[in-house]
Design brief:
Elements: H1 3-9, H2 15-40, H3 43-46, H4 53-57, E1 61-66, H5 72-80, E2 98-103, E3 108-111, H6 112-115, H7 131-134, E4 137-142, E5 151-154, H8 162-168, H9 172-180, E6 185-191, H10 199-206, E7 215-220, H11 227-244, E8 253-255, H12 269-332, H13 374-383, E9 390-392, H14 393-400, H15 407-417, E10 424-426, H16 427-441
Parallel strand pairs: 1-5, 1-6, 2-4, 6-7, 7-8
Antiparallel strand pairs: 2-5, 3-4, 9-10
Helix pairs in contact: 1-2, 2-12, 13-16, 15-16
């Protein structure tokens, strides 16, 4: 599938050309194979938004995360060896925004709302986090040689306390998770004087789960303590990290003082230089390994989408039989009702709703309820010239339409009244039809089947004696 990857790597072309070729192939593979699967099973609604061209072609990105005053912005200044637009440094919480430091021919900044509509930048999907986030997001561009190879994301300093989380106005950890899925390296910065991990910082680190191979830790400002204190600080840091980063491997920690000022304590100068070189080599390897990282991330996404598709497909097949099983079980079980208290006197008996009204009138009485008005109905019946004690449907219709009820209702009344289903009505059946018309005109509903107490007396089955 990825035969073009090996061919380009050994062709002697520049790393940038190889990266463009590889990412172009990955994008073609994604749009042609994986994207249709994601759209069919609505992967983007459950997991991650669809990838765009900029996600494949953007430079490797480094995300800096840490509590306030750990030296994140100073660290960027140290790498670039120059200031960048939007940079603020101080002992108090200064950076309250996400700043994407990227290459640009002219120095300047782009606000978040404009940044997320630029198709050439890999930030379009951040629009879903709303204006509260976009007002605290910007891109800082400058013509710096370092930024031709990597981009750096500076994050707001993390404070402790519930107020800090609420006052942001957006889901800070969700934003970090979004970046974590797309960056090549995540650097957690700690101050040698402040190793406490606040609740929000702990939640932020947990948002990086699944991206453990990208995480590196920097113990900054290490020149401000002596060797003995540094050993204790390092041990305390590893113990604290072990509680929030659940990986069997020990996370890599780089010790140093990443700023351009003289060291306060020179005892560990050699150590700091070696650690800095190790960290720089790790960052320098990002462009070289960018193609493999994009391929690795696409494979992880494909596996996740495949599992998601299997689950949704299985649920889709199982839900219909499950619903039928639930209906069958409900039908086989006794009706579940609320009992006791005021409910006991409202469902059955002579005080139940509708009892003795409409089609329920006369239920439980020995005399046929229609009999009280039958003399009036009989007079009409005999004016319609019955033959052998019955009138035809044509004659019955002439009388029944006088009620002005629609034919659909009269048709139902006819079916109920013609109890013996011979297509004609005798005097009892005609009286029953008139009684049902009266019920409907009084505003009551007609029964679907004729209740036993409305069955004409001459057509009732005799009660058999049990003796």
């Amino acid at each position: 599938m990825f035969s073009w990857l090996g061919k380009e790597s050994g062709s002697g072309r520049s790393p940038q050309d190889v990266l463009q070729t590889v990412t172009g192939g990955l994008q073609s593979l994604y749009t042609g194979k994986l994207l249709p699967l994601e759209e069919h099973y609505r992967f983007h609604e459950f997991h991650s938004p669809a990838l765009e061209e900029a996600d494949f072609k953007n430079l490797p990105m480094v995300l800096l995360v840490g509590q306030y005053s750990t030296g994140k912005t100073t660290f960027i200044r140290y790498l670039l060896e120059q200031d960048f637009p939007g940079m603020r440094i101080g002992p108090e919480p200064t950076t309250d925004s996400f700043i994407a430091v990227m290459y640009g021919e002219k120095e300047g900044s782009i606000p978040g709302n404009a940044l997320v509509v630029d198709p050439k930048k890999p930030f379009r999907k951040l629009n879903s986090f709303g204006n509260a986030f976009l007002n605290r997001f910007m891109c800082s561009q400058l013509p710096n040689q370092v930024l031709k190879s990597i981009s750096i994301i500076d994050s707001p300093g993390i404070l402790s306390g519930e107020k800090q989380r609420i006052s942001r106005g957006y889901d800070f950890c969700q934003v970090l998770q979004w970046f974590a899925e797309r960056v090549d390296r995540i650097i957690l910065l700690f101050d040698a004087h402040k190793l406490d991990i606040s609740d929000e910082f702990s939640e932020a680190i947990k948002a990086f789960r699944g991206q453990d191979d990208k995480i590196r830790v920097v113990l900054n400002k290490a020149d401000q303590v002596d060797t003995q204190q540094l050993m204790r600080v390092y041990g305390a840091l590893m113990w604290s990290l072990g509680k929030v980063i659940n990986t069997p491997e020990v996370v890599r920690v780089y010790i140093g003082s990443f700023w351009a000022k003289p060291l306060q304590n020179t005892e560990n100068r050699k150590l700091f230089e070696m650690e800095a070189q190790d960290l720089f080599r790790d960052i320098q390897s990002l462009p070289k390994n960018a193609a493999l990282r994009k391929l690795n991330d696409l494979i992880k996404r494909a596996r996740l989408a495949k599992v998601h598709a299997y689950i949704i497909s299985h649920l889709k097949k199982e839900i219909a039989p499950l619903m039928s099983m639930i209906r069958e079980e409900e039908n086989s079980m006794p009706t579940q009702m609320v009992h006791g208290g005021a409910f006991e006197g409202t469902m059955e008996g002579p005080f139940g709703q509708g009892y003795g009204e409409g089609a329920g009138e006369g239920a439980g009485e020995e005399e046929w309820v229609v009999a009280k008005d039958k003399p009036l109905y009989d007079e009409l019946f005999y004016t319609m010239s019955p033959v052998n004690g019955k009138i035809s449907g044509v004659n019955a219709k002439k009388e029944m339409v006088n009620s002005k009820l629609p034919n659909s209702v009269l048709g139902k009344i006819w079916k109920l009244a013609d109890y013996d289903m011979d297509g004609m009505l005798d005097e009892e059946e005609f009286a029953l039809a008139k009684h049902l018309i009266k019920i409907k005109l009084e505003g009551f509903e007609l029964p679907n089947e004729l209740p036993p107490h409305l069955v004409p007396p001459s057509q009732r089955k005799p009660v058999q004696n049990s003796e």
